[in-house]
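Escalation from tier 1.

The customer reports that the assembly of two entities below gives different structure tokens on two consecutive runs. Tier 1 could not reproduce it. I'm attaching the input and our single run for tier 2 to review.
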Amino acid sequence: MHEETLLRDLKRKVEEVALGDRAVRVNRVRIWVGALAHISDGQLRARWIEITEGGIAEGAALEIDRSMDPGDPRAQSIVLTRVDVDRDDSPLLEGGDLVEHP
Amino acid sequence: MTERSIHVDYVARVEGEGALRVKLHDRTVEKVELRIFEPPRFFEAFLRGRRYDEAPDITARICGICPVAYQMSACHAMEKALGIRVGGTLRELRRLLYCGEWIESHTLHMYLLHAPDFLGFPDAIALAKEQPEAVRRGLELKKIGNAIMRVLGGREIHPINVRVGGFYRCPTPEEMVALRPQVERAMGLAEETVRFMAGLTFPDFEEDYEFVALRGPEEYPFNEGEIRSSRGLRIPQEKFEEQFEEVQVPYSNAYHVIRKGGGSFLVGPLARYAINHDLLTPRAKALAREAGLREVERNPYRSILVRAVEVLFACEESLRIIDGYRPPEVPWVASDTPIAVGDFSAVTEAPRGMLYHRYKLGTGGMIQEARIVAPTTQNQLRIEDDLRDVVARGLDMDDAHLADACEKAIRNHDPCISCATHFLRLEVDRREE
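Tier 1 run:
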């Protein structure tokens, strides 16, 4: 069940990064998976779809770079490397609220 | 609206599988609550409406480390309903499959999770840097356990060759002969493991456990035997629910199991060893003595030694079975009569302790109700009792050191949640007057 907590953590970080960048939608997420991370691409993709449902990252493509090097110092880890988003460029109102578009 | 790529370098971590809430009043431990967040998995509900012969494959998916235990408990329960007894070579092959699982599961826990605790390393990766030969020994031994699982089960994780009545296919004599040199090698590695683990320094800590395990009729138990406890309980497997009860606690997703009219109890290697020590092979007994193990070991930190002795026993048992192997005439025993209606249960010894299955079967062997009581569930209350004493001794520690001491105490019992190093969030409520 460790994929559950890993993916929850990943989703939390993706949302934090996206919202911090005023994103309205996450299109693509790229991760690097270490050789000893004990998780398959199939598990990752299946849980990713379920876990992002209803959030800003719903429907975002998950791209996986899989490392084959067990000697890498991050070999047991999953690293979030890139988040592609659609960003709202409208100017901010005072106080940081987004401008309402008609 | 613009598209943008944000580059990050964030490592996702396994966190918060469990939390420990400790309430102190002055210097008295008032409450210790181990909270398991892992969501319910509904396996007992999946089984309803499925046929009896699907149970071994469905329940195997509960655990990637001990799938054989689930298959064995399911098969034995269903065979009682069919009125068949699996004996002779098929019975031996089941013991061999279980040996493979004990070897790989115990070795994984000893070298990759437990040993770093005693050697001052945060994890096995750090241990591998300083003592690469130890980790290599562990990995090689685990691989041989996996090889046994592959020959008997078709693959090492979630084997697919087990069926009610025996196996779909039995190994050829050539396949068994090919396994022999590996198992012989494993025996040497297992002896080295006992000696290596005997060199560790263990905290001086003992608990007054009620040990519960199967007692084999003539052999150290895997699949058969009656349930016995160190306080005199002696019952057939079918009476498990008369003596043990699952209870819900509001703070955890995992059940607690209590001994009716008693309290916590312990299953697993310490219990199995305490109740069956005399059934070990002479070599395993001698190594146990050399490692300083007493016939009943009450220091949970020293469970790593018992695991090492059990691995040595499993290697010896594997070699005995391989050497005596003659392929059976049929790979499984069939029943002459239709499957019975009613409740059928079985207990086998998973690496972590007794695993109980009960199935209520309707006509045609359709499962109407299933109950599965895993060893970690049975030990959970006992783990809280250990933690209460660990906290009481560590009152002067800061929270980080206390959390570390608690994690180690939990790891002694190899619960499934221990896979995650640093999995524990500690909340200490220190109230002083």
